[in-house]
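Hey forum,

I'm writing up a methods section and want to include a predicted complex as supplementary material. The small molecule is magnesium ion. I've pasted the protein sequence and the SMILES. Can someone with a working setup run it? I'll credit the forum in the acknowledgements.
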Amino acid sequence: MLTHYMDLGWRSIRKTPVLSALMVMAISIGIGITLISLNVFQLMSHNPAGERSSVLHMTQLWSQGPDSWEEYSANLTYQDTMNLRQSDIPVRSVASFRSGGAIHAEGSDAEPEMRSIRVTDSEFFAMFSVPFLYGGSWDKSVDMEAAHVVVINEDLNRTFLGGGNNVGKIIYLDVTPYQIVGIIDHWMPRPKYYDVTNGSMNFAESIYVPFSLTPHEEFPVWGNTSGWQFEPLITYNDRLLSEKTWIQFWAELPDEDAQMQFSQWLTSYVEQQQALGRFTDNTRTSWMRLLDVAEYLTDSEVVPEDNRIMIGLSALFLAVCLVNILGLLLTKFLKRAPEVGVRRAIGASRRQIFLQHMVEVSLIGLLGGVIGLVWAWFGLTTLADHLGMEEALGRLDPSMWIMTPSIALGAAMLAGMYPAWVICRTQPSVYLKSQ
Amino acid sequence: MLSMKKINKVFKTDLVETHALRDFDLQVEEGEFVAVTGPSGSGKTTFLNIAGLLEGFTQGEYTLDGVNVSRLNDNQAARIRNEKIGFIFQGFNLIPDLNLAENVEVPLRYRGFNSAERKRRVEQALEQVGLGARMKHLPSQLSGGQQQRVAIARALAGEPRFLLADEPTGNLDSLMARQVMELLEEINRNGTTIIMVTHDPELARRAQRNIQIVDGQVCDFTLYQGGDEPQAARA
Ligand SMILES: Nc1ncnc2c1ncn2[C@@H]1O[C@H](COP(=O)(O)OP(=O)(O)OP(=O)(O)O)[C@@H](O)[C@H]1O
Ligand SMILES: [Mg+2]
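Reply by user p_vandermeer:
Happy to help. Structure tokens for the complex are below, copy them as they are.
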């Protein structure tokens, strides 16, 4: 019977092509707009750390003086970073910041390219579950004694070295040769949760070099540098000694015990530093905090308030479309009352008439959903291409494949329920004699 | 077969109450062919709608095929309409978007027959009304008489116990009307009980039994046999 209802519904849709097209368009635009805002929300509110979300802790310090910033800086100073790396309480700890430079390889046809680089510690890859194709991270000893080693991603490997296992080969950052120790597979956490401070939806970097090289190589900082007091940075060393904050510090703390211990360690560290004349904001009682990934993403407002408002507005818009469709359906169905009268007379129950019309409405909804998906795709691409939305946001999240039919069906049924109910209450005798 | 006792039907609109049927009593036996006549507005259609479970009534008791059908819910009524009753209307009431075979198939689908059974019955019914060769035509491509024959085929396909016809020849010229009448007579000979409302005294005379409704009541019924003159008239 269901296939029969679909057949009837489809005939009815084709019988009034203009009206049907109007309804499908209205619903598709409503759905398209809803999908765009949901898609953006979905991508932004995703927590890519999964199970490890509660284990990884972003460490933040209130190193600013009184009467300056009113919140924690997302980043740490170089001196604090170097000191925190001394603690052996975290199972793993990783300092990192975003840099960049010109990449090329000897004997490669590829032109040198400017690429962003992550300067970090050896355990970055284990900490954030980065998959390796070949090789692995550099040795832990390199974190103390700098060496010119590098981990690159598969894309870069293909572009500059033609792909394959190129561990041991050399690539150049600007003019300095680095030996490749590992090649990572495609890896694109969204949001880029290990550092959301400059573009939470940007792609992960394609090159990773040891943090210990920072003072030697004087890597430029492509991320944010913030300062709460006036400090001219003439030389790179000025930066290293300054109170400027620009480095993310992650600690892996597997349980509450470890978190407690590390907090205590940080508290006593701050006390030492206060003895040296830093951490001068005495209005505070605590100068440090640990945020797990979920807290970090919330605190960094990866999902802006605007986005929630957008979802509300698009739902409202969809509702307006639905009210329109409700009216159109009511007219269309009532025109069919004589036919329904006949069907009722020759044995259709109200339920069967109701179902028949709900199936027709669902077909309209699904058609609207498919076209809505096209609108959404088109809209997202346009937003990404022309309005400077971050590239990763211009993609349809796989969840939309489930979301779209549910919204489309739900919306259509909502709009169709009343018209279908009205028509199924048709009193057959009224229409039989009047023909 | 059909028994109505003191049926009352009152239509209430904002302004007036119409007493369409008043203490309506009627008994129809299995296999009868009953013609119903009466002035316009006397309640013939109302009676037929109630008999066919298309409408409820205000008071009284209605037994159909040994079952009290006075107070049925929508589902039960739909089921009985589907299985036991065939309808033929003055306006044919075919569904314009469906071809002949599909029109005849509609009640069979609600009945839940499988497609082989539906096909068999559709072909047989259309064959019986002489339209077996036109299964794929649309109703609009047929003459009025042909359309009415399709409606009869639709009513027949479910093999109902009981055929209700409201002025089935009202929209037809006399030749076509006679053909339709002959078809109904043949159906009746095969054992189906028929109640037919008509304004045409000639057609009415061909029925086994005539009843007249005046002002919502059965006022007179006459038994005709073999087209002879009325033999008896009771009040
Ligand atoms: N749905 C309704 N609402 C109100 N009054 C109605 C309704 N249906 C019928 N009536 C009234 O009930 C009475 C009987 O109507 P009915 O249709 O049964 O007459 P009829 O004998 O079939 O007439 P005709 O020969 O003209 O078809 C009429 O007075 C009519 O106005
Ligand atoms: Mg009538």
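Some notes you might quote in the supplement: The mean pLDDT of chain A is 91. The longest strand of chain A covers residues 92-104.
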